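Action item from last meeting closed. Structure (309 res):
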């Protein structure tokens, strides 16, 4: 307990009982600490923030906007990409527009349809017709969203691209790479900031050490408007199973998620895989494999022409 005020939040992993003011301050200070520890930002950076309208990206935009008030040479731009998921993305798009407007932050809106010629719904339908296709909709969505955000950030000449991944997301990703025996990805944990390529805008994750539960509480205490719907394509995927497992472990053994994150960071240091990007020979975008994932699925599904690259 830090003061005599009524405690509104309890942290099992630290044993702290926090009043609203100290809780809110602790979240913001944790973001500042994470940015500093990983050297995510410079004082003059032009920063793009991926804004979906959900609690994580909305909270991230609010906190970064507050932090950047102390750095007049820095600037923020919100970027929203409509994947094209009927009955799901509309509310998030509306709330993203509202949030950016309330904060007075420039807001760029695009879509899979505009960027690549297809909505995610259309891609999923095409993929379903491929009898040998084993990829989930999340696989396609992740590749296209990363490509789209990087493309827009590059066109805007941004220095960094901030993504609202929280502690839960990071811990799940680390375990996913272990379950899939994907050592190269495991060795690249939190290395987006280290990636170098003339066409790649470094990505940062200022919320990576904050549990999802605490971000939700912060957003509610600040009365932020965000949508809470679950993407219809996320049901039954590996990440969801790992989310349930981690939540159960965290309840039994508080601090589990932080331990997984620290393990992932230590593994990266031990493996010492330096993220070297090269130019994809097909689309000429940055890639970690011989041919980038975007072009791999383009060839697999016979989707994208060169004009969408």
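Sequence:
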């Amino acid at each position: 307990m830090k003061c005599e005020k009524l405690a509104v939040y309890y942290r099992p992993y630290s044993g702290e009982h926090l009043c609203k003011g100290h809780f809110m301050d602790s979240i913001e200070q944790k973001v500042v600490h994470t940015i500093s520890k990983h050297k995510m930002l410079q004082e003059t950076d032009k920063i793009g923030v991926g804004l979906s309208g959900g609690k994580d990206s909305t909270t991230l935009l609010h906190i970064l906007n507050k932090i950047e008030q102390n750095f007049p040479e820095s600037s923020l731009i919100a970027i929203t990409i409509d994947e094209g998921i009927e009955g799901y993305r509309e509310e998030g798009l509306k709330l993203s527009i509202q949030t950016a407007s309330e904060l007075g932050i420039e807001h760029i809106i695009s879509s899979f349809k505009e960027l690549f010629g297809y909505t995610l719904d259309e891609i999923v339908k095409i993929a379903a017709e491929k009898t040998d296709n084993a990829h989930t909709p999340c696989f396609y969505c992740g590749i296209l969203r990363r490509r789209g955000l990087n493309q827009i950030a590059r066109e805007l000449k941004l220095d960094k691209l901030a993504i609202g991944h929280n502690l839960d997301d990071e811990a799940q990703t680390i375990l996913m790479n272990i379950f899939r025996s994907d050592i190269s990805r495991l060795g690249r944990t939190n290395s987006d900031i280290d990636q170098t390529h003339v066409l790649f805008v470094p990505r940062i994750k200022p919320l990576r050490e904050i549990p999802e539960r605490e971000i939700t509480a912060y957003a509610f205490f600040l009365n932020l408007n965000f949508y809470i719907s679950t993407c219809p394509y996320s049901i039954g995927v590996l990440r969801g199973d790992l989310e349930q497992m981690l939540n159960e472990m965290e309840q039994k053994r508080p601090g589990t998620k932080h331990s997984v994150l620290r393990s992932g960071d230590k593994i990266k240091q031990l493996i010492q895989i330096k993220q070297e990007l090269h130019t994809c020979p097909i689309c000429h975008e940055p890639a970690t494999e011989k041919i980038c994932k975007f072009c791999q699925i383009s060839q697999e599904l016979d989707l994208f022409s060169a004009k969408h690259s």
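Note appended to the action item: The longest helix spans residues 137-155.
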